[in-house]
Amino acid sequence: MQLDRAMDAFLRHVTVERGLSEHTVGAYRRDLTGYVQWMSQHDVTDSAQVTAARVTEFIAERSGAQPRPAASSLARLQSSVRGLHRFLQREGIEAEDPTGRLRPPKLPQRLPKALTVDQAVRLLEAPDPAEPLGIRDRALLELLYATGARVSEVVQLDVDDLAHGDVLRVRGKGSKERIVPVGQYAREAVDAYLTRVRPELSRRGRATPRLFLGARGAPLSRQSVWLVIQAAAERAQLSAHVSPHTLRHSFATHLLQGGADVRVVQELLGHASVATTQIYTHVSADALRDVYATSHPRAQ
User: Fold this and answer.
1) Cβ distance 139 to 192 under 8 Å?
2) Buried b (16+ CB within 10 A) or exposed e, 128-161
3) Per the residue annotation, which of 76, 85, 210, 248 is the catalytic one?
4) Contact, 200 vs 112, CB < 8 A?
5) Does the pLDDT at position 283 exceed 90?
6) Which residue in 150, 187, 210, 249 is the catalytic one?
7) How far is CA 105 from the centre of its chain?
8) What DSSP line would sit under 172-219, residue for residue?
9) Residue 111 contacts by C-beta under 8 Å, 6 or more apart in sequence?
10) Is 252 helix (H, G, I), strand (E, B) or coil?
11) DSSP 8-state secondary structure symbol assigned to residue 239
12) Is there a catalytic annotation at residue 263?
């Protein structure tokens, strides 16, 4: 099969059958477009012509590019290429997978940056409660911290996803749904937004079931959520970089520090594997060491 057609077939597969997000599919498309173009420049236009040596040469060239790409970008690139060829083999289009022995680069383990509880409270209380958008922003921040939801999940929430009172229905990666409890602070903030602000915002735009709306009534975008968080962090005088994922990290870390089981946190975060969640246990272990050092008579 022609490599460009093979790429299109693979992208349709991950979009329709695997239900991957638009963001993830876009990353696959960028990686594979560069891969197909490179192969074409080396007179490889058919998937049957691809060899392990050619794939290794491609990865090596990309690894040595200047400026040097991040290890995470190289790992994603390899994952995209492997995904394409595994798909072709699984579908019976090709008998062999030339990436079978390709090993992804080992990424350095980075502990997620979490806010302290005091910093989280300052961030949540930063929006101006006297302003309609301040009420919306408070509801948004409270919900992000209360549920640990990804920013892509929060912007896709509908009003009806909160219809069950103290729980939220979240649609995660691969269109998988999970139910997450919503604490009192977040529920009250969202109720205030729904009662006092959203009806007016909704009148400014086309009717939409989306929970969070922008100033003109359109559904809030991921970029807008990022700006809301940046503005709140500035008002709260937080010097550390704060992003939507910072609140997700803080949610997980604070739960584990409070004694939550790692598998419960895995379920709340929507992680497919507990191994993904266990990185947060290292953060909690730091807190445990601090408590031990200051509390045990023979620690020092």
Assistant:
1) yes
2) eeeebbbbbbbbbbbbbbbbbbbbbbbbbbeeeb
3) 248
4) no
5) no
6) 150
7) 21
8) -GGG-EEEEE--HHHHHHHHHHHHHTHHHHHHTS----BSSB-TTSSB
9) 279, 282, 283
10) helix
11) -
12) no
Q: pLDDT tens across 35-79, in order? A: 999 999 999 999 999 999 999 899 888 888 777 777 778 888 888
Tell me if residue 216 is catalytic: no
Whether 271 is catalytic is: yes
Residue 4: band (very low, low, confident or very high) from pLDDT cuts 50, 70, 90: very high
Cα 93 to the center of its chain, rounded Å: 32
- For tokens 């590019």, the residue is 65
**pLDDT, position 8:** 93
Region 222-228 average pLDDT: 91
Give pLDDT, residue 41: 94
- Please say if the pLDDT value at position 114 is more than 90: no
Q: Is 292 a catalytic residue?
A: no
Catalytic site residue 298?
no
pTM over 0.70: no
Catalytic residue (choose from 29, 122, 173, 222):
173
Q: Does residue 282 carry a catalytic annotation?
A: no
The residue among 210, 221, 140, 171 whose CA lies nearest residue 21 is 171
CA atoms of 152 and 140, how far apart (whole Å): 13
CA 256 to chain centre: 20
Candidate from 60-69, 194-203, 290-299 with smallest mean pLDDT: 290-299
Mapping DSSP onto H, E and C, the string for 18-64 reads CCCCHHHHHHHHHHHHHHHHHHHHCCCCEHHHCCHHHHHHHHHHHHC
CB proximity list for 61: less than 8 A, separation 6 or greater = 38
pLDDT of residue 104: 65
Residues 139/189, Cβ–Cβ less than 8 Å:
yes
Please report the pLDDT score of residue 298 as a whole number: 57
Q: Residue 227: what pLDDT?
A: 92
The span from the CA of 205 to the CA of 195, in Å, is: 17
- Model confidence at 285: pLDDT above 60: no
